[in-house]
Structure formats: structure tokens, C-alpha cells
Design goal:
heterodimer, A: 314 residues, alpha/beta, Rossmann fold, 5-stranded parallel β-sheet, 8 helices, B: 248 residues, 9-stranded mixed β-sheet, two-stranded antiparallel sheet, 6 helices
């Protein structure tokens, strides 16, 4: 029976949380189905294999420490070809998206995106994907070898940590045709505000409607001595700067209180704020997924609520 | 340099989504479709490269179906030079869609192919890297910045926490665009109408769509409601919560 492979992810010499989240789940699945849980490391990260103690063993493909969409995918492809795993867990992340699609298409294996749950069945695996902006859970059954892209935050990272030292196998992997060359890692520009340090955040989403109306949220933030945050669409629209962005490609925040105004709660946003101690969501759509993670909610027009709130507090 | 932009539609998430009688798909009668928002960024980035002089031609491509003409005419109104509609098939998933585009791109020819990094319904994988694999070209996903010189492109790929990786990529290549350098432009309705009357859409056959994703949907349902949020009725109650949590 094929192993369960976990494609580890690292940045600046540290394994990313998604690595441990996937390892914990893979170990569970392996235990249930009598398989081995095997982690794949890149570059010199085999030197940190003692952090991957949850894995039964580690395959080190070596190569560069710097992520490269082409060479990393080529390396994974050669391991998958050689080992015929029953399941490969990859992050539904910037790196995982390159690797999973490339490997699966080249090897004609099924891929399942945005997974928030995976369970072992009699002949294969059942994967639940969070789709349509988190509004639908879609179950795909795969039998035979498949690549599954796991959403960050779907599983508990603590389950994937243990102080064992798994055996490390050095694997001579392919590195691709050299058509993509890594140049440099670019740090975010120094920001005026560090929202990861804020106690209270007032976060605005697409529901705010226009750039001018952000003023209203600013007014509320001033009164509450809070910092202003936002979801991705506002940054893409040029309405707010990147340093305010919460979510997958922005910041991960855990303030004491997170007030979400007009944020629907797509998985990419939830990933960045679900650890907040108290989440208060105001959104006119009562079915918005944000109400599933919020502790308190108001299904009202955000302008009505915020205007009245500002008036009362003044 | 010629940039092809792959455009696709998906359900507008502003509308309520319902599951059909099969329990495996969305009830299509109620779905309002719109252009995938990341594809709009892909188109914008391509047009910006043309305006900067780095690209000579932008070709917008979409598969046939309701709304396809409107999307293609809108792309021309925004600055695309040519629109191509793929007909003669009904792709069922990202893999078949990928085959359709790869077939059409093979005959169209291109230096770069842009598409949105992901879409709301790409259950079986993302279109960009799938097409790249079929075309055997390099691919970078989650891109928010491209510049071109000679036969290579400087591509900026987003990681978490605001970090980015810069890569030099040989062309031809496929890029999954997360965000254009500026917000996608708006095409006035009058301009789109004018384009509809003057421009034409080239039609090509999408060809053999292959065997698809080799996986199928077993069931679909809205996520189970957890304990969920405690719903507040008015601002008075909200103020009580804010007091209780020490915000005011």
C-alpha cells in the first residue's frame, strides 16, 4: 500500500505552519489505513528533520533552499513517480499551487483543490473542498493515487509536531529544464503600522463599496483606538495599502477584538484572522461565511450600524 | 511580443447559491455568471504591458457559452487587439478547459499566456499550471507583477506575510496572475456597444478535450453551521459586547 507523502514548505530556513498542519493530518490518515507518513524536504531543510518527528520517515531531495516553481515541481514529480504514493498532501498555497498542478497534470493524477478535510475510505480517500468563496463544501472521492491541496488553517499544526528523529533518505531528484531562475526574495516594505501587533482591528471588506466610504471605518477605528485592516479586494482596487491586508497573502493577525465590516469571509481571509480572541462581524448577507467564524454578528447594512455606533459613542 | 489571456466565467458569489436535485452541482437556473475576478487582473496586466510598449498584441480568449461574447467584446473595449472564442465542446472541469485552451494556443501562437491565479470553482486544479503542463512551458502562479525584456520576463510571485520571490522566466511561459499593477480598468457600456458593432470575434475549434480530471464530485452542500455567531439585534447590544470585551 502506497505511503502518504507530505510536501513540506519552508521560507527563510523555517518550516511553515502548513507543513505541520498537513503532517498531523497525514499521520492520522496513515494510522487509520495502515500506511506510512513520509515528508519530503528541499534544499538543506533535511538538517531540520528532527522537527518533522511526526513523519515515519523523510525523503530529502536536496537542491536549492530557494523555492523555484520548476525545480521543486520536478523534484516532487520524480519522487512521486518512484514511490507511487497513495496520497500526496500539498499546501493550497503559493508554492503548492505550482507544484500540485504541475505534478498531477504531468503524471495524469487527480488533483483536489482547497481541501479542509480528508478521510480514508475503503479503496481511497474522501476530500472535502471549501469552494465558492467558502459558501459550499464539495466532496470528491478519489481512488488511486491523488494530489490533494490543503487549505492553510484547516488542521491543527500542534498535531504535526513531535520530538522524534525520523530516518532521512537522500533522493536524487530531477531539477527541471532551467527555464525559471530564482533571483531574490523581497521583504515587504517597512510599514507605518504593524497590524499583527494591534489589540483591536477594524477591518473593512468589499461591502464598503467605495474608497470614500472607508472614512467611516476610520472614524470608528479612531473612536475605538483601533487600527484599520482590510481584505484583499481593497488592496487590489488600490483603496488601501498592502500593510493593512489580512489573509493568505497578507498578514496573520490575532487581536483581542476583530471587527469585520462588509467582509464575506472567503477562506483566504479567514486564514488570516480566525485566531482573533473575539470576532464581531457586520454584513448585510446573513448567509455570509464570516458568521461561521465570528463570535458575534449583525446581519445589517454596515453603514447603518457604523453610523449609529459612531453617533452613540461620540 | 504576443500575450494571450485566458478568460473564464464563474458564479457571482454575491447571489445565493443552491445545490440542484442531484446533490452534486449548483442549481444552474439561479446562477448569475461573471468574469472570474483574477482573470480581469490578468487582462489588465497584459494591457498594461502593451501600453508600456513591452507587448505588441493582446489576444483575449474564452470558451463559447452564455456571456462569452460580452466578456470578449469587453476585453476589446478595454484594449485587447483580438478576441478568440473556442467552440465545439463543453469542458467539464479545469483539465478539459485546459485542453481546450492548450489546443487553441497551439495554433494561435504566443509568447506569454496570462490567466487568473485561481477561480471560485476550480475544484480539480488551477487553469494556468494545467495549461502550462499541456503546452510544456514554464509556469509561475500567484504573480503580481511582470516586466519583460528580450526573451525573458521578470516575474514577481507572492508568498505569505507580504514576502515576494523574483524569478527570471524564459518565454513562452504561462503566468497565473493574482493582481495587476493597478486595479482593472472599467469599460463604459457605450464603448462596449460600439465594439460590438465594429469588432468581430474569431472562432476556433477547441478540439479534443481529453479524459478530464479523473475525479468527480460525490456531493455538495453548504458548510454545516457550527455554533456560529451570536446574532445581535441592534447597536445597543453591540455596544454591550464592546464594553464587555474592554474595547470601550
Amino acid at each position: 500500500m502506497g505511503d502518504i507523502l507530505v510536501i513540506t514548505e519552508h521560507l527563510k530556513g523555517e518550516f511553515q505552519d502548513i507543513t505541520f498542519e498537513m503532517l498531523g493530518k497525514a499521520k492520522d490518515l496513515a494510522g487509520e489505513s495502515g500506511r506510512q507518513c513520509v515528508a519530503i524536504t528541499f534544499g538543506s531543510m533535511n538538517g531540520k528533520s528532527d522537527e518533522l518527528g511526526v513523519a515515519d520517515s523523510v525523503i530529502s531531495v536536496g537542491g536549492s533552499d530557494d523555492y523555484n516553481p520548476e525545480s521543486y515541481a520536478a523534484a516532487v514529480q520524480s519522487v512521486v513517480s518512484a514511490k507511487s504514493p497513495s496520497l500526496v498532501l500539498v499546501g493550497s498555497t503559493s508554492m503548492g499551487m505550482d507544484i500540485a498542478n504541475s505534478v498531477a497534470t504531468a503524471l495524469d493524477m487527480p488533483t483536489v483543490s482547497y481541501c479542509v478535510d480528508v478521510s480514508a475510505g475503503s479503496s481511497g480517500f474522501s476530500c472535502t473542498s471549501s469552494m465558492y468563496g467558502g459558501k459550499m463544501n464539495v466532496v470528491t472521492n478519489v481512488d488511486g493515487s491523488a494530489l490533494v491541496m490543503v487549505l492553510a488553517g484547516a488542521f491543527n499544526a500542534d498535531e504535526g509536531k513531535s520530538a522524534e528523529s525520523p530516518a532521512v533518505e537522500d533522493f536524487v531528484a530531477e531539477s527541471g529544464a532551467g527555464k525559471i531562475r530564482f533571483k531574490q526574495l523581497i521583504e515587504p516594505e517597512a510599514a507605518d503600522v504593524d497590524i499583527t501587533q494591534s489589540d483591536i482591528l477594524v477591518a473593512v471588506g468589499r461591502g464598503i463599496g467605495s474608497k470614500d466610504d472607508i472614512k467611516l471605518a476610520e472614524e470608528l477605528a479612531d473612536i475605538l483606538v483601533a487600527d484599520l485592516a482590510c481584505s484583499r479586494p481593497l488592496v487590489d482596487a488600490g483603496w488601501m495599502s498592502k500593510e493593512h491586508q489580512v489573509g493568505k497573502s497578507g498578514m496573520k493577525v490575532k487581536p483581542k477584538v476583530y471587527i469585520a465590516l462588509g467582509i464575506s469571509g472567503a477562506p483566504e481571509h479567514i486564514e488570516g484572522m480566525k485566531s482573533s480572541s473575539t470576532i464581531i462581524a457586520i454584513n448585510s448577507d446573513k448567509n455570509a461565511p464570516i458568521f461561521d467564524v465570528a463570535h458575534y454578528g449583525m446581519a445589517e447594512d454596515l453603514f447603518d450600524v457604523v453610523e449609529e455606533l459612531v453617533e452613540e459613542l461620540e | 511580443m504576443k500575450i494571450a489571456v485566458m478568460l473564464k466565467q464563474g458564479p457571482d458569489l454575491v447571489e445565493d447559491l443552491e445545490v440542484d436535485a442531484s446533490g452534486k452541482a449548483l442549481a444552474s437556473d439561479d446562477i448569475k455568471f461573471k468574469l472570474n475576478e483574477f482573470d480581469d487582473h490578468a487582462l489588465e496586466e497584459a494591457i498594461l504591458l502593451k501600453e508600456s510598449g513591452a507587448a505588441d498584441e493582446v489576444v483575449a480568449m474564452a470558451v463559447e457559452g452564455k456571456g462569452a461574447d460580452k466578456i470578449l467584446f469587453t476585453a476589446i473595449a478595454k484594449g485587447a487587439d483580438k478576441a478568440v472564442k473556442l467552440n465545439g465542446g463543453n469542458p467539464q472541469d479545469s483539465h478539459q478547459l485546459g485542453k481546450a485552451f492548450a489546443n487553441a494556443l497551439g495554433s494561435e501562437g504566443f509568447d506569454m499566456v496570462f490567466t487568473g491565479v485561481q477561480s471560485v470553482d476550480d475544484r480539480d486544479g488551477q487553469l494556468g499550471p494545467i495549461v502550462a503542463s499541456y503546452l510544456d512551458t514554464p509556469c509561475v502562479s500567484v504573480v503580481s507583477g511582470v516586466s519583460v525584456s528580450g526573451g525573458t520576463a521578470a516575474v514577481y510571485k507572492e508568498y505569505s506575510g507580504g514576502m515576494m520571490g523574483e524569478f527570471e522566466v524564459d518565454m513562452p511561459a504561462v503566468l497565473g496572475i493574482q493582481a495587476a499593477k493597478q486595479a482593472p480598468r472599467y469599460a463604459p457600456v457605450s464603448k462596449i456597444r460600439q465594439v460590438q458593432e465594429t469588432a468581430s470575434i474569431e472562432e476556433v475549434s477547441m478540439g479534443d478535450l481529453g479524459s478530464g480530471s479523473r475525479s468527480s464530485v460525490a456531493s455538495m452542500a453548504p458548510p454545516a453551521k457550527g455554533s456560529g455567531a451570536e446574532m445581535l439585534d441592534d447597536v445597543e447590544e453591540l455596544i454591550e459586547v464592546l464594553k464587555d470585551k474592554g474595547v470601550i
